[in-house]
Design the sequence.
């Protein structure tokens, strides 16, 4: 196992450990973290349910690929090179760490899916000072890193799906936040980049 594979597994452990920590923390306080599909219909509901199932499959694929049980063919020899793998491993680790920071910044507001049954205060602290969507930016970095580390059709498909699904989720969340917090959210929106460097 190359050191890049070890980093891939560490990034995976950080991401899954963060999810477990937030699930246990919210369960202890009697709150729901899994709001996937609640109050949605049609395409949005299907997409929200597809997302955690896709995550589970992808993380399984990361594990069996990193441990050498499964080695799908790369796109091209020049793409399957140590500098690309190193970039991917570091990007995945940065994404997982960013996700943990964003989850910590959200505190009790953390959840999977959009929970329309409970209103939280607007989160503008921590990672959310630098991006309105640090959780999703971190996930793009994580899965983009996995694609660079394992440049094959499986990880490319997963990354493309992640970009599409999270872009859809961001649009729906911003609509709900603007509706819920109105002027407070508009002020935050004007002052904080949507992703990292641009609004």
Sequence:
């Amino acid at each position: 196992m190359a050191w890049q594979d070890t980093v891939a597994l560490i990034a995976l452990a950080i991401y899954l450990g963060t999810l477990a920590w937030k699930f246990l923390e919210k369960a202890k306080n009697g709150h729901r973290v899994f709001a996937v599909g609640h109050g949605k219909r049609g395409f949005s509901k299907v997409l929200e349910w597809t997302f955690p199932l896709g995550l589970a499959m992808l993380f399984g694929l990361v594990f069996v690929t990193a441990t050498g049980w499964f080695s799908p063919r790369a796109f091209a020899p020049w793409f399957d090179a140590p500098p690309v793998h190193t970039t991917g491993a570091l990007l995945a680790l940065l994404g997982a760490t960013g996700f943990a920071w964003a989850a910590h910044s959200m505190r009790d507001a953390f959840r999977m899916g959009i929970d329309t049954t409970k209103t939280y205060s607007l989160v503008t602290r921590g990672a959310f000072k630098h991006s309105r969507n640090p959780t999703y930016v971190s996930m793009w970095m994580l899965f983009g890193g996995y694609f660079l580390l394992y440049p094959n059709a499986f990880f490319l498909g997963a990354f493309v799906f992640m970009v599409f699904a999270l872009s859809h989720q961001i649009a729906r969340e911003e609509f709900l936040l603007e509706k819920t917090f109105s002027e407070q959210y508009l002020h935050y929106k004007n002052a904080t980049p949507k992703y990292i460097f641009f609004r």
Remarks:
- Residues 36 and 52 are 8 Å apart (CA to CA).
- The domain at 3-191 is CATH 1.20.120.1630 (Four Helix Bundle (Hemerythrin (Met), subunit A)).
